[in-house]
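The data layer described in this paper is built around a simple, fixed record for each protein. We quote a single record here, exactly as it is kept in our systems:
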Amino acid sequence: MNAGQTVFSQLMDHLPSYEFQKCIERYRGDAHHRGFSCRDQYLAMAFAQLTYRESLRDIEACLGAMRGKLYHMGFRGRVTRSTLGDANEAHDWRIFADFAQMLIAIARPLYADDPLGVDLVQALYALDSTTIDLCLSVFPWARFRKHKGAVKMHTLLDLRGNIPTFIRITDGKVHDVNILDELAIEAGAFYVMDRGYIDFQRLHAFTLALAFFVVRTKENVLLERRYSHPVDKSTGVRSDQTVVLATIGSATAYSSFQTNGKLTHGIQEPKRCTGRQGIERLRTVISSSLDPELKTKSNAS
């Protein structure tokens, strides 16, 4: 039923205004807003995202065409290109980062029971990055190549609902693998990554946190097969093998138990574990690496 509100205003009413105000007060965002508050800035940027605006000039022109409706949309300040640009530069970005994390915490339980297409009850995340090209003459601080500017956005996506749970924007030259140091690893969760994240010392942190990772291997990674396990190829699993890292450097970096720098415990790393059978084998292998009693039973069987 039409309540006299614009569609945009009705969408914004779903946002917890009290929580947003707490984020503003936490960083004193409106201490010197000069007629254009953090809420006005948020509304302008939300409008730009929802209507696919491409620049500050585009935002100004579009909102200016409906000047008589801006008050009913929630705006209290005048939206101009220079005012919005100053707000983007002056207002603390942590206000919006904290508010985004709060919205993510509200949204994730709503999709907790969504099917994934695989028989998996644990949390499933995908980690990847994308490079955003920038004009070097406009953004000289974002030098990426000699005649090219760029920043890189690293995103950890919860595949139940496709909700981002971690976003970090870095210089375009930052390698993907460095982001693994900033992740808060969730015990029992599965993390799917590309081969750009292969660093056995960093990947070992997932095992220590009782989490699982699925990553494509590189051609120069030397593996030694110890066991081959039967698979049902109709499920899409090509092979299920227990392997160990063949080079001393990699094996030492991915080692659960070390004494005087010598590897005293072989690390089992499943290869191409997909589907239900692969996931069950993945659980068994990692659990046996952490639980000596389970490992003894597995060897006995």
